[in-house]
Amino acid sequence: MANQNVVVSDAITAAVAGPSIFPAAAQKPPAVPGTYISISQKKLVQNLDINSAARINAWVDSMRALSPTHIKSHSLSDHRNMQLPSAMDTFEQIMNDAKGKQIVMFLDYDGTLSPIVEDANQAFMSNAMRETVRKVARYFPTAIVSGRGLDQVYSFVRLAELYYAGSHGMDIKGPSKSSKHTKGGEAVLYQPASQYLPMMDEVYKALLEVTKDTPGSTVDNNKFCLSVHFRRVDEKKWVELATKVGSVMEAYPDLVLTQGRKVFEIRPPSKWNKGKALEFLLESLGYANCADVYPIYIGDDRTDEDAFKVLRERGQGSGILVSKIPKDTNASYSLQEPSEVMAFLRRLVDWKRLSLRKQFMLKARLQGMKMPMPI
Fold this sequence. Notes:
Layout (H helix, E strand, L loop, with lengths): L3 E5 L4 E4 L19 E4 L1 H10 L1 H14 L2 H6 L17 H8 L3 E6 L19 H13 L2 E4 L4 H8 L5 E4 L4 E3 L15 E2 L6 H15 L6 E4 L4 E4 L8 H12 L6 E5 L2 E5 L6 H11 L8 E7 L5 H10 L3 E5 L10 E3 L2 H30 L8
Parallel strand pairs: 1-3, 4-5, 4-13, 5-6, 13-14, 14-15
Antiparallel strand pairs: 1-2, 6-7, 7-8, 9-10, 10-12, 11-12
Helix pairs in contact: 2-8, 5-11, 7-8, 9-10
């Protein structure tokens, strides 16, 4: 990533491309791209008020930094120290680490199960990917963790036996179909920021109004997260769009503004994120303080870093980043694109089937009798 994330103590977040917003006295040592630096809320507000033009320019620089043309222009040699081992090449090592443990799968949607497309409403997963995820869920508890609204991501995936965490984990629901992985047969339902729903609806309407004259821009209401997409907006209009988004946000200082790949995202001031959702689901499944669990989280976006960080801090499981270019990340392994994700998941299913058959054959020999071979 070419931009930094500025984390403010009172849940106000702004994406900036460099230290130009802040006076020399407020600057900290340069951070590694993609890492976090903290400043006080008072100092941030003061400097954003004084340097509103600089703020907009910083947003636009950050928007450019995440564009494919900018990324491709950087030499991969600059990032060799951040290159991760391939999850396909090291599959056996990952499975050795998971041996004797319960694997729990966590999957992002966009860029992980489906390709990134110009129109976010056309980000369909293939039937082959859907069938692969269905097989994974047969053997392992499986959750989809997405920035999309829960209902929307479910409409894309359409697998009732999965757990779903929409709006970056702020809207969580368990399987609506009977599953052997569902604890006590009860569906999980959790919405940690429900009190902000009226405010989010207000902001959604305001964003629709101010962006209606910006060709190519779209605003999605993901219930607990609003997304302003600019993937199809002419780069010459980026300053105008950033200014419009900023004008709306000034009236709602409690909300958090972050930036992803060609998208602005507005969320409630909750500390809840994909990492918290991962922990909540593990607890719901009965694995909160269990040493014999191995979570695998696969995602491609900076918002997935919260989950990667949780796994690293727990010393459990594996975070797998989906990216064709090396990035600074808390993940341990990488896959290049959704097709590799599908290949990894299929290999995981084959590994599980083989393990079950070996267990069956061993048990059959010990019992000295013939038994139906597991599927």
